Amino acid sequence: MNSEPARLAAGLYLVATPIGNARDITLRALDVLAAADVIAAEDTRTARRLMEIHGLSPGGRPCVAYHDHSTPGDRARLVRAVREGQAVAYVSEAGTPLLADPGFRLAAEVREAGGAVTAVPGASALLAALSVAGLPTDRFLFCGFLPAASAARRTALAEVASVPATLVFYESPRRLDAALADMAEVLGEDRPVAVCRELTKRFEEVTTGRLGELDLGGMVRKGEIVLVVGRAVAGEAADDAAVDAALREAMRTLRVKDAATVVAGALGRPRREVYQRALGLGAEEGD
C-alpha cells in the first residue's frame, strides 16, 4: 500500500486552520499540507505545531513566513514557485486566509500570473460567531476590525449603521468596552448584540443583550473576540450622533460642502439637512 500523499496540481491552496480546537482541521486540509511542495504561513511556528499534532512533518520542504509585513520580493518568490509548477499551501495563524488575515495580495498576484487559486475551506471565527449569536444569518456584512481611535471608529460605524444586515466585527479585548460604547451611541442602544469570546476553545463565552444594557459581568478581557450586531430596522436612518461623527471625520480632509455630500449619501440623510449640521459643527470648532 502506497502511503505517499497524492501529487497536487500546481497552484496556491488557501488552507483554513482551526481557530482554537486543533481537531477542527479538515481531512482535505491535512492532505494538502502533506502533499504541498511549499508551505507558506503567517506564523511558521504555529503551522509546524499544527502539523506535528496531526502527525505531519514539513520534511525537506520549504516552510516560509508570509504575513502583513512580508515584502513584494517575498510574494514574488511564492508566485514564481507556482509558475514553476509547484503547489504552495498558505495558512494563516488561525481560521480562513484573507478573512481579516493576510493573503489577498498573494492570491491576486498568483491569479494575475495565470496560476490557479484553490480554497480549502474550514474553520472561521466569522461563521462560528454567526452560528451561535442567535441573530439572522440570511444577510450579513463582515466589517473586520474597527479603527482603534474612537472618532474614526464612530465614523466607520456610521457608514454601516443603516445597512439592513447583521453586522460582524472582530475586536481586540483591550478595546472591547470602548467599541461597545461607541456602538451604543452610533448604532443605537436597542440593537441586539452577541459578544463571542474564544470560540471553540476551552473558555468559550457568548454573551447576548442590547447594546445599551449589555452586562458582560466578569468576562475576562482576553482572547479572540467577535461582535455580532443586529441589523438596522427598515427605514431607520443614522441618528444625529452618527451623522456628526461622520461629518467631523470627513471635514478633516474635505471642504464642508463635499463632506456633507459624502456623509448624506453614505448615511441616507437629506443633503441640505446634513449640510446645515456641517456648518454648525464648523462654527463650533471655530469658536
TrEMBL record:
GO terms for molecular function: rRNA (cytosine-2'-O-)-methyltransferase activity. It is an enzyme of class 2 (transferase). It holds the Pfam family TP_methylase. Keywords: Cytoplasm, Methyltransferase, rRNA processing, S-adenosyl-L-methionine, Transferase. One of its GO terms (cellular component) is cytoplasm. It is found in: Cytoplasm. Residues 237-281 form the RsmI HTH domain. It catalyses: cytidine(1402) in 16S rRNA + S-adenosyl-L-methionine = 2'-O-methylcytidine(1402) in 16S rRNA + S-adenosyl-L-homocysteine + H(+). SUPFAM superfamilies: Tetrapyrrole methylase. It comes from the Bacteria. Residues 12-215 form the Tetrapyrrole methylase domain. InterPro entries: 4pyrrol_Mease, 4pyrrol_Methylase_sf, 4pyrrole_Mease_sub1, 4pyrrole_Mease_sub2, rRNA_ssu_MeTfrase_I, RsmI_HTH. HAMAP family: 16SrRNA_methyltr_I (MF_01877). Catalyzes the 2'-O-methylation of the ribose of cytidine 1402 (C1402) in 16S rRNA. This is Ribosomal RNA small subunit methyltransferase I.
